[in-house]
Specification:
The chain is an all-alpha fold and 73 residues long. It has one helix and no strands. The termini are far apart.
């Protein structure tokens, strides 16, 4: 009876360790995927921000030119 219990305990440990590796590998893959997605979102946000800054700069330059022309007549 003791041998049977030890055998079941060992089988349980083996199954636990073999299943545990899958979870770790899946977690690592999930983290890598999330990092890639995060980097992509950051890059897109930076590009949009740069475009917005360029548009705002152009708008301010145009406004300054118009005001300067009005003042100088």
């Amino acid at each position: 009876m003791k041998k049977t219990m030890v055998l079941f305990a060992l089988v349980g440990l083996v199954l636990t360790t073999s299943c545990g590796k899958k979870e770790v590998e899946q977690t690592e893959e999930t983290i890598e995927t999330q990092l890639e997605e995060t980097e992509q979102v950051i890059e897109e946000s930076v590009e949009e921000l740069e475009e917005s800054v360029e548009d705002a700069t152009e708008s301010v330059e145009d406004t300054v030119e118009e005001v300067t022309e009005e003042i100088n007549g």
